[in-house]
Specification:
Elements (H helix, E strand, L loop, with lengths): L7 E4 L10 E4 L20 E7 L4 E5 L10 E5 L8 E5 L5 E5 L5 E5 L2 E5 L6 E5 L2 E6 L2 E6 L2 E6 L6 E5 L6 E7 L4 E4 L7 E6 L9 E7 L2 E6 L5 E4 L8 E6 L9 E5 L5 E5 L5 E4 L8 E6 L9 E5 L7 H12 L8 H11 L9 H8 L13 E4 L6 H6 L1 E7 L2 E5 L3 E5 H8 L6 E3 L8
Antiparallel strand pairs: 1-2, 3-6, 3-14, 4-5, 6-7, 8-9, 10-11, 11-12, 12-13, 15-18, 15-26, 16-17, 17-21, 17-25, 18-19, 19-22, 20-21, 21-25, 22-23, 24-25, 27-28, 27-31, 28-29, 29-30
Helix pairs in contact: 1-2
Length: 436
């Protein structure tokens, strides 16, 4: 009943149908004014960016640290891994809040709110248009960037915004056993995935791109190939490898939060988890898929590495592309040969059709890297192009350079749309030699 007007909450006409109007009406004791209150959790388990109401800040682990004792602060919202938290309701109705990047618990420490290797839980309740964290008679206050405990009535209300478990970006993927996801022999061909000691190699660097609903494609930076099991067989122990993009469910991995504070990768096609064979800690251990069991062999930490710096070889190719004069119209592949020769990377011959067949194996846009050649084996815009195709060099920032009687720079998307009218444009490392 409304305190202001004395009217009761009422379903118009006593209708039992979706879309029925709800109004204020004189109290009459009918079923249209009888309501059942069912208790529910304040918050569903899931992944969140947590923002103080009325601000553009978010809870944030200072510096993206993975260390116990790192300060939790209010910081300009950027949706980074430092600002993504997994919230889980415990059996007593309280909640644990853990940073997805570190796997550590949010708790109160000597110097305010911090993340800790010691477990902690909070009561979450409603206050002034948001949800507050309570611990006993105290609540978290987060003003001017500082987060601390204050008396319960003075806590900061927060908005919990659902988010994905990972953001698109570059990562080292580290096992809880201490090794990193890698490709055997740093191959740029189809090759087995292995777990190696961290060594800074580009084959241990991965680009993760969302496929929707906490599912991801995982692309090796060294090869631009995607992580997948070798077959669709739902057989525990099946090897995992890198392979060219196919668009199949086999190349999609569901990211699932584990109680170990890490991420388990479950293949969409097979339902099996990415696993280090025998839970081995030795460098070179085989990586397979196996029945999900939550052990350390299946728990992975995605360590953000920020923007990837171009290698000296990539920089040399891009610089050469900008300085190499044009070739006559119809001699696009000759310009490619000159660019790589001028960059000190040898002479690679053949028309665009040859280079397309020999070196260009990937047609997945997120996998392209600066310094790669981009080609079609045929297109319908010129007679020469219908026979020998066309080719250019990707220089980064969504741009491609090519020679069509003059050297031009244009949008990669526009190039792909224009020349892709007969065959799918693809890209790869010329000579099958990775520049990263």
């Amino acid at each position: 009943m409304s305190r202001a007007g004395g009217l009761s909450l009422d379903v118009f006409g006593g209708k039992n149908a979706n879309g029925a109007n709800v109004r204020g009406y004189y109290k009459n004791g009918t079923d249209a004014q009888a309501w059942v209150f069912k208790a529910t959790a304040a918050l569903a388990d899931g992944n969140y960016v947590i923002t103080p109401t009325g601000t553009t800040r978010a809870l944030d682990v200072c510096g993206g640290s993975a260390s116990s004792g790192a300060k939790v602060q209010g910081y300009a919202r950027n949706d980074s891994m430092a600002q993504r938290f997994h919230v889980k309701r415990l059996s007593d109705g309280s909640y644990e809040v853990r940073n997805i990047n570190s796997g550590l618990w949010v708790r109160s420490g000597a110097n305010g709110i911090e993340q800790s290797s010691k477990s902690a839980s909070w009561t979450i309740g409603w206050l002034d248009g948001g949800l507050v964290f309570r611990s006993g008679d105290a609540s978290i206050s987060c003003t001017s960037g500082q987060c601390k405990l204050v008396e319960a009535s003075k806590g900061t209300p927060f908005v919990f915004d659902r988010t994905s478990i990972l953001q698109n970006g570059y990562y080292n993927i580290q096992s809880l056993l201490g090794t990193c996801l890698d490709i055997k022999g740093k191959s740029i061909k189809s090759a087995s995935a292995v777990a190696n000691s961290k060594n800074g190699a580009s084959s241990q660097l991965w680009y993760v791109v969302s496929a929707g609903n906490d599912a991801y494609r995982i692309i090796n930076i060294h090869s631009s190939f995607l992580l997948e099991p070798v077959s669709d067989a739902k057989t525990a122990g099946t090897n995992v490898r890198q392979a060219t993009y196919t668009g199949s469910a086999r190349q999609v991995w569901n990211a699932v939060w584990s109680d170990e504070g890490r991420i388990v990768l479950v293949n969409r096609a097979t339902g099996l988890a990415l696993d280090i064979s025998g839970a081995s800690t030795r460098s070179g251990a085989n990586v397979q898929e196996y029945t999900k069991n939550g052990t350390k062999a299946q728990c992975w930490r995605f360590v953000p590495v920020g923007n990837v710096t171009l290698s000296k070889l990539q920089q040399a190719v891009i610089k050469s592309a900008k300085n190499t004069p044009s070739t006559p119209a119809g001699y696009c592949s000759e310009w490619i040969t000159r660019v790589f020769r001028n960059a000190g990377l040898g002479s690679w011959y053949g028309d665009a059709c040859d280079m397309y067949r020999n070196y260009c194996k990937n047609g997945h846009l997120p996998a392209i890297q600066p310094g790669m050649i981009v080609a079609v084996s045929s297109h319908g815009h010129t007679r020469a192009g219908s026979i020998w195709g066309h080719i250019g060099i990707y220089i980064g920032d969504g741009l491609i350079m090519d020679s069509i009687g003059y050297v031009r720079t244009m949008s990669l998307r526009e190039w792909v749309d224009y020349y892709g009218n007969r065959v799918t444009p693809k890209w790869g490392w010329v000579g099958k030699k990775a520049l990263v």
